[in-house]
Amino acid sequence: MISADLGKPLHSNLDLSISGLVIERSERILCDNFSCVVKAGEVARIMGENGAGKSTLLKVIAGILQPLEGQIFFSGEDISYHRDMLHRELLYLGHHAGIKAVFSVAENLNWYCPNQTSDAIELALDVVGLAGYSDTPAHQLSAGQQRRIALARLWLTDKKVWLLDEPFTALDVKGVAVLEAKIKQHTDAGGLVILTTHQALDDSLSVKEIKLV
Amino acid sequence: MISADLGKPLHSNLDLSISGLVIERSERILCDNFSCVVKAGEVARIMGENGAGKSTLLKVIAGILQPLEGQIFFSGEDISYHRDMLHRELLYLGHHAGIKAVFSVAENLNWYCPNQTSDAIELALDVVGLAGYSDTPAHQLSAGQQRRIALARLWLTDKKVWLLDEPFTALDVKGVAVLEAKIKQHTDAGGLVILTTHQALDDSLSVKEIKLV
Amino acid sequence: MAFESINEFISMGTHGPYVWSVYGISLILLLGSYFASVKAKKNQIKRLKQRYLREQKS
Amino acid sequence: MNWIWFHKLGSPKWFFQWANKWSKFAFVIGLVMLVVGIAWGLGFAPADYQQGNSFRIIYIHVPSAILAQSCYLGLGVAGLVSLVWRMKMAPVFIKAVAPLGAVMAVIALISGAIWGKPTWGAWWVWDARLTSVLILFLLYMGVIAIQNSLDDMQLADKAVAVISVVGLINLPIIKYSVEWWNTLHQPATFTITAKPAMPMEMWLPLLLSTLGMYGFIAAIAMWRMQTEVLVREHRSNWVKKEILDNGI
Amino acid sequence: MTYSSFFYSEILAIFRRKQDAVNALVFFLLVITLFPLGVSPSKEFLQPAAGGIIWCAVALAVLMSVEGMFKEDYNDGSLEQLVVSGLYLPVLVLLKLAVHWFAIMLPLLVLTPILSQMLFINWEILWVLILTLILGSPALFLIGTIGAALTVSLRRGAVLMLLIILPFYLPVIIFSTGAIAAAQVGQPYNGQLAILGAISLMTLTLSPIMAAVSIKASVN
Amino acid sequence: MTYSSFFYSEILAIFRRKQDAVNALVFFLLVITLFPLGVSPSKEFLQPAAGGIIWCAVALAVLMSVEGMFKEDYNDGSLEQLVVSGLYLPVLVLLKLAVHWFAIMLPLLVLTPILSQMLFINWEILWVLILTLILGSPALFLIGTIGAALTVSLRRGAVLMLLIILPFYLPVIIFSTGAIAAAQVGQPYNGQLAILGAISLMTLTLSPIMAAVSIKASVN
Ligand code: HEM
Ligand SMILES: Nc1ncnc2c1ncn2[C@@H]1O[C@H](COP(=O)(O)OP(=O)(O)OP(=O)(O)O)[C@@H](O)[C@H]1O
Ligand SMILES: Nc1ncnc2c1ncn2[C@@H]1O[C@H](COP(=O)(O)OP(=O)(O)OP(=O)(O)O)[C@@H](O)[C@H]1O
Ligand SMILES: [Mg+2]
Ligand SMILES: [Mg+2]
Q: pTM, whole model, 2 decimals?
């Protein structure tokens, strides 16, 4: 199927729709009969207080946790039991970013993005403000710098669906701005982003807010 | 010595002054000849980019790391080598908040604040939005809720010097407001707060910004 | 009855201490399992009942 | 063959009510058989011509040894069911039965050890049969340890299921290896495998007490499973109804 | 992430942490020294016991080094990333295991001839010992992985891990020492070796899947 | 935080994690079973080796359970809080250790008589064994703490910790088994017991301070 809107690339037909999701955590129902649709080109922000279940919802979508009931459709196909199709297009960043302490910054990225040239990696590091750190072991970096390594993956990937759990924690103001710009660029190119954050987002990002009650 | 200013309690003569501090981390000089003074009643915010050395500076003040050079004075006494005097008045919250996963919320607080009645603890939990969770094991709580347990200590302590490393991470908007109000109340009562954060603070808090370059 | 008298039954030849200690220990363990299980069930029911009644009230 | 009961057993509600009916039945029948079997064995069966009266320990020893093995088999099957069909009752079964199996193994060990003293002159020898029961006990302790160490219930369920399945596959290997090991290292001085042709008056009470032990343990297991069901399903309406209306 | 980038990063991690392999080796050595010191240094005691001593030491060393295999990945969130990577988890487990096997067992095999001299093992018997190690050690690693995956979320999992896994090591130890003992008295030992190989093969099919199930359950 | 609230919370933590104490116990049992299975089940081998076997098993069980003593505190940041609490760190270490000693050693002492039967230890010798355990085990805990404190910041500390600490356990093991061996041949063994007590006392003064230094160095 070729998209009619020529401004958007081929992938733009992808969407993620959730219907009737029930999630339980330590014997408490977190979302009861939760439904939503997120389409290509959209940034969805999951809203909720501390403990509302935002992280849990992201994990369920990523397939790390199992829901009690409900279906998840990815581009029209039911992926409730088999996430393989989604995983091919998925980039998930949780509270722990999956950065190996003994690896240098560049090695960490090589691991996740094996198809990238080292120039591309240097470039991405430059953008996230880690220029010159590529040979530093990750454990020698500050909290925010470690976070930035994980975020550099966003510049090196062609995955379309991004699930970002509090991507702005520990980032300084400059870092937040760079990341917001990247998210905007990604959705403009037909990507799909679901994120959680307690910080106010920049207005340039048109965000679809999804409330968890 | 009785303070002339009756609005402030006896402790108001306390201050923390740092002179000529040199800190090294993984063979990199982080602050070179750094000096500053923070007085009772002040909120000092350490400013700096990711990796500037904010967390490191807080740890040095708390005595967890050793500086290369320089002195730290607490109420006029040199505590560069012996932090005991400071520790008696110190509450430090780092990136990891010191919350034990197997303990319930109330037990965690009992441990740190043994002199408090359980009513006082309930009250503090209520303020930080954890009412009803006092018997829940801490590992069953979300990131923000665990953070709130640690913050509840602020309501239960009579320590005067607070060192808070990114206290607002993972907190939702309501939580941030409550914490800001508490910090204000503490400094108004003659306390001393040094904190780091990348978020903008509320205007009602008059903050003394200390730049790390 | 394989034994002439009650005394003989208790002494079991010379093997009384062995036999009776086995049966004693086994009895304790079996009864222990039984009572622990029954009590756990009763307690759980009581706990749930209290909780449901509390929920109904509020 | 009608498999409906099997699928129904997977439903906590159905199991709970089924167990309500049958647990008392199993308990009463089991207890009666156990008491009759043991009383018969203790008081009325003839003394063994070789071992004298110490052989009366058999009426607790063999039932508990058999039960210890059966329970482990049960754990393994339940583990498989839990991993493959994700049946809700399977982890409940494992959690309820593992401690009972451990108790049975302990009784077998203690009764065997005490029996060994007058018969062999030693509390313990490293015989294949004995050692494999000891290992069985250790396997039970492994299941219990992992169940209690993991705070997250779903993780604990998966973990015990995995260990039970691995145990199911490995148990024959372990048993075989231990038997083989002992025959190599040490000529079997004391065989408890070679059956003395037992007269009927000895054998019948043994059968009774063994069957009785099955009933007794089955009843306790059902109660424990019911308790666990109540813990896990406490938010469902049927539990609420059951507790408030039926007053159980 | 691809299979090859994963494999490569595992090798890299092993190289970065080469101290771990050295540690396993020294631990192995230490356990073996414990026997002559703790029990008796005489040839009469050591020679017949040597096979058992070496195998117990190998089992403990393997167990201890497998124990932490997923810990770091769990703590830094990489394990989560593996689960959502879209790659087949059992294969990843197997790749990781292969790298670990090489890193731990090869040096250990090299060390064995020296140690067996210290325990008075003859050169002819040495070959049997090495054969049992090659055939049996994969089973040790494969079984250990399941335990490591199960206890990965526990901060203090080492004891628990030893507890659930050691009983499953017993057959491997028994058949290996059996083969060595048989060789020492000049009996055939092919049967034991065949069984060792069979156990390794069986665990090869079973354990990656079980470990993957456990990892998925642990990551949450 | 006060000394008493710290002590109380340690007891609470042990109660919450009582499975850990049970695990240490079962692990102890398991290691002891390993020897008859791995080496030889005959009385001729086991009786003279019994003291050594039990002591090796105790040393391993203590080591494994001490290993994780500070791990959790380190990971959740409590250790940092202890450092800045203004309380005297060596005292805190000692309090923690006392609680652990009770939780691990008491059950272990209760189990010892049964196990020594399985290893064919006579009743008279049993008393010597228990005496060596009571006198020597504090040293095991005290020495182990230093290792635990040193390796706390390493994610995969178990093997390394064993490595650092086991050599220091050797004197304790040697004197204990020496006392038992002496008792078995009817010789006096007071000397060994006195040395054991002396080692425990010496480590009691030294180890909390060393452990505190290591903790301060690890937390950063
Ligand atoms: C701790 C020590 C012992 C243990 C762990 C033990 C274990 C067992 C086991 C597992 C069975 C098999 C039950 C079955 O599946 O049929 C058994 C049966 C039996 N045991 Fe023991 N046993 C011990 C000591 C003894 C002693 C000292 C005696 C008496 C000399 C003894 C006599 C028997 C007899 C007669 C049977 C029934 C044999 C059969 O029907 O197969 N056991 N024991
Ligand atoms: N554990 C460590 N070992 C070695 N070097 C470290 C370590 N932690 C931090 N550093 C170095 O010290 C510098 C300052 O780190 P610090 O954590 O103090 O930064 P920060 O200002 O708190 O940054 P952030 O805003 O990201 O929290 C970093 O540039 C880093 O290179
Ligand atoms: N590991 C866990 N085990 C059991 N229950 C948990 C666990 N983690 C979270 N929960 C429960 O699930 C609920 C939702 O947690 P979750 O982490 O999804 O919240 P969140 O919306 O991400 O909050 P935050 O804004 O603090 O990150 C919490 O109320 C908590 O009680
Ligand atoms: Mg969250
Ligand atoms: Mg910082």
A: 0.90
